[in-house]
Amino acid sequence: MKHFNTFCLTLALVFTGFCAKAQPGERIEQLRIAFLSEELDLTTQEGQAFWPLFNEYNDQRKDLEKSARRAERDLDSKSSPSEEDVLEVAKLQTANMRKQADLLDDYLPKFMDILGPKRTVRLMRSEEEFKRRMLERIRDRRRP
Predict the structure, then answer these.
(1) What is the three-class DSSP state of 41?
(2) Containing domain of residue 99, as a range?
(3) Are 89 and 72 in contact (CB under 8 A)?
(4) pLDDT over 90 (residue 24)
């Protein structure tokens, strides 16, 4: 048990060192990985199967979110957008939401194969919890 505690402490110190040198986006991603790993209580074998799949899912989800933000920025950049422009963006956002739901439908069974149903639900909750905590940290830093 003593060796395990020493290993965990060493791992935590190394991880902290990596976080200190990482760019802000990388640091947040490292924190998220650590948070989700702890919340899901992943074994080494589960982690090796889960993280590539999760990263694939997350990359596709980010691409969909970027396209929606891009359309919104394009609309905002117009001095006086037409109703057609606004409707086009609304349709794009609706289609984007459907695509995100379809993406989740595709990946949920894969996550369940690795994590089981309970931890898959915990994954969804933990992602939201991580976002909430990050937003709280940002708000706390901005307060005088």
Answers:
(1) coil
(2) 42-142
(3) yes
(4) no
